[in-house]
Amino acid sequence: MKKFFILLALVAATLTAHADEFPYLAIERTNGSVTVMAAANLTLTYADGTLTAANGEANETFETASLSRMYFTDTATGIAEIAAAGRAVPVDVWAADGRSLGRFPSLQDATKRLNKGTYVIKANGTTFKVAVQ
Asked: 3-state DSSP call for residue 83?
């Protein structure tokens, strides 16, 4: 039993050291939007189908049904949810090489139609980078 606890402590220490290499947590939704938060002092709380992420600087709430994945990253860029008064906002899309791919009625519509890859999205005067997988 003592060996088990020592092994468990070693695994926990290894995972903690590995997580330090990635100072941000990215939370991706099914519509393709990504929220990135600093992982320092991050707490995740789940209640009634809602995930709350708080780190002292930001406090974000997510419906778990709308989440596709979470991952640690070394990049602080992410995509804010694009909406205006609860309605979809048109987005302009460019390929990574700068080619314009046109305008789509919403971010969700764009991510459904695009092939896998990295794109630049502009909506409401704000530009974001999106990875479609």
From this structure: coil
Count other Cβ atoms within 10 Å, centred on residue 7: 10
Length of the chain as a residue count: 133
Nearest to 127 by CA among 91, 75, 99, 90: 91
Q: What is the pTM of this model?
A: 0.47
Tokens matching residue 44: 């995740």
**CATH numbers and ranges of domains, the chain:** 23-74 (2.30.30), 82-133 (no CATH)
Q: What is the pLDDT of residues 59-98, one digit of tens each?
A: 888 888 888 888 888 766 554 445 555 567 888 999 888 8
